[in-house]
Task: structure prediction
Amino acid sequence: MVVTLMYFDGCPNWRYTKRLLDCLPVEFDCDLRLRLVSTPQEAEQVGFRGSPTVLIDGVDPFADRDAPTGLACRIFATPEGLRGSPTVDLLRSVLATR
Result:
C-alpha cells in the first residue's frame, strides 16, 4: 500500500502528520511518500483540498468533495474536536480498511 502525504510549505501541520505516519509503515506494510504541492494550478490538477492531505493508494479517505482545492490548511474532525491533522487512531482506522 502506498501512503502519500501531500502538503505545501506554508502549512504548519504537515510535519506533525508526517511524524504520525512515520510510525505506521511497519504496522501496515506501507510505503510512505511525500509530495510538495507548490502552485494553485498544481493543487487544482491533483485535487489538493488542503494541507496535509493523506492519500492511500491514491484515495483521500478524509475527502470532502465540496471543499475547494488550493494552497490552504486543512481541518479534520477528530474525537477531540477540529484539528489540523488526523489523529493516529483515525489514520490507523483508514489504513486498516485498505
Q: What stands out?
A: Helices lie at 14-22, 25-28, 40-46, 88-96.
